[in-house]
């Protein structure tokens, strides 16, 4: 694994820079577990997250968004590419250095029922990372109490066990644990999708408050485009291991340029019967191809209503369309251009 | 007015558990009219799925069940198992969240659909297979002639969902019950499946009872809506009444707590405080009382009855503060 520390600083040095990150999983078969294939879950992803910024990462199942988050934190080892945290290589860090770096980069998982040790009282769950990093029992416990308060739980909850809490409360505990070491970056992997709708908003608001209070940077991984729109400053759209479009929130939602982004947005149902009745929906044909057998050329071409011969031969590079707006498409849509009309004009 | 397809009348379902009795459904009454899409909306523990399962008599045997579910002139809770089997598939068909629970993994998809056809119609086996292919085509499965010979594992998630819909409409049921049919699917596939359900409904004229937690899906497909909370109906009415003129604090709270794709950006979400009620130990009085910003003492003492809102009796809501609600909502909005 190599990495280049002399990368160019963008507007304000990013907290996190991901360059050309690749994560392969071998497919093994037979008695001797011979490798018979390869799933490229993350396929050359480059991203930046700036200070006090939320980068939303959206995509459907199998697009690699969860693997991306885990590879950044080295919960999975990258196949190639580099991750740098404030200019320091994460992918090249020694194990002891990595342990230090993890202080600054934390993760909150989707399932609040699986990510908390059921045999530990809540205060100990939250204090555990502090103990691992050498805090005294008393200091760790005092800090845990502060965090219990910061995430909106009652102080006497510290002695209780995870099973005594609802999904929303458990997710607060997971967030408190992630905050314990005062990180600058938190990777939130579908943090609200397992929660009841009436509870989701509580956790989203909590995340926003904590971000302002502690000047946090978030990578918010989710499949729910409405939640991502609400919380993100910038958004990256992934399809089969690739980032197909990345831009500030308004550009992605108001002027989506990649045909996949437009289709994805048009598929989201809106809780408004009048709007739904008058909506023209782009219904994509077919299913997501298997990540083990990605199409040649542009990976979206098998479902794209405006794909041409070129799309099956040549893979589109991600390129700048407008200030801060990058798209990987041979035929990007201009602002105001609708995929339905473009497709109709081409007789599709 | 025509006869409803199905009428739930004072339905209550309780389960004994190790920790005590769970009263999952409490005195639920509503009708589904022919050809309409009725959505039952609620969060986990609201009783929406148990209500639907009771109509298919698929609730656990240990459940205590009272009230009536009238379908085709009889009470489904009072008929024998043999007669009930005829109702399932012919009269009422069900679409599940996970198609693998409904499809037999070791049987060809075509054989499973043909089997449904043969139960109902006296046709040859060959004719039944042709019908199976036609049904798959009608739900948008490409190359149906080849697909009928495949097994469910050879189908993708969205295609399995289509195959299950094909099976469900095989015998032209009067009622399709769909329990979270799109929850496990990606949005682009969800859009396809909803489209297929709409088309299938238009073709067969069946009524749909849709069970879901997703208000977006409801807005796209439902004619009428029942909102459930803590085992009870909290509000019911046309989609427009419930979405635009809701007269219930829970429904209102739910609507304003979800982030929407068309909401102004940068606005803070307004969450409902607290958590959904514990099914084993529900609050006394109104189930929503502990989370309701408008609740007063009377709300914690007894639960309100489901009352008619407006004049035509189509819109109903359960709230002690029904008379004051317009003012309370207006005051809350200016806060």
List the helices and strands and how they pair.
The complex is a heterodimer of chains A (348) and B (335).
Chain A: E1 16-29, E2 34-49, E3 54-58, H1 65-72, E4 80-85, E5 88-89, H2 95-104, E6 105-108, H3 122-132, H4 137-150, H5 167-179, E7 185-189, H6 197-214, E8 217-222, H7 225-231, E9 234-239, E10 242-248, H8 249-254, H9 259-267, H10 273-277, H11 309-313, E11 319-322, E12 325-327, H12 339-345
Parallel strand pairs in A: 3-8, 3-9, 6-7, 7-8
Antiparallel strand pairs in A: 1-2, 1-4, 4-5, 9-10, 10-12, 11-12
Chain B: E1 6-17, E2 20-32, E3 37-41, H1 48-55, E4 64-71, E5 74-75, H2 81-91, E6 92-95, H3 109-120, H4 125-138, H5 144-147, H6 157-169, E7 175-179, H7 187-204, E8 207-212, H8 215-221, E9 224-229, E10 232-238, H9 239-244, H10 249-257, H11 297-301, E11 306-309, E12 315-318, H12 325-334
Parallel strand pairs in B: 3-8, 3-9, 6-7, 7-8
Antiparallel strand pairs in B: 1-2, 1-4, 4-5, 9-10, 10-12, 11-12
Q: What do these coordinates show?
A:
The complex is a heterodimer of chains A (348) and B (335). Chain A has helices at 65-72, 95-104, 122-132, 137-150, 167-179, 197-214, 225-231, 249-254, 259-267, 273-277, 309-313, 339-345; strands at residues 16-29, 34-49, 54-58, 80-85, 88-89, 105-108, 185-189, 217-222, 234-239, 242-248, 319-322, 325-327. Chain A has an 8-stranded mixed sheet, sandwiched between helices. A 4-stranded antiparallel sheet of chain A has the order 2-1-4-5. The model of chain A is unreliable at 1-11 (pLDDT under 50). Chain A has 348 residues and is an alpha/beta fold. With 335 residues, chain B is α/β, with parallel strands linked by helices. Chain B has helices at residues 48-55, 81-91, 109-120, 125-138, 144-147, 157-169, 187-204, 215-221, 239-244, 249-257, 297-301, 325-334, and strands spanning 6-17, 20-32, 37-41, 64-71, 74-75, 92-95, 175-179, 207-212, 224-229, 232-238, 306-309, 315-318. In chain B, the strands form 2 sheets. An 8-stranded mixed sheet of chain B has the order 6-7-8-3-9-10-12-11, with helices on both faces. A 4-stranded antiparallel sheet of chain B has the order 2-1-4-5, covered by helices on one side. In chain B, α3 crosses α4 (125-138), α4 packs across α6 (157-169) and α6 runs parallel beside α7. Chain B starts with 5 loop residues before the first strand and ends with a helix. Chains A and B meet through α6, α7, α8, α9 and α10 of A and α6, α7, α8, α9 and α10 of B.
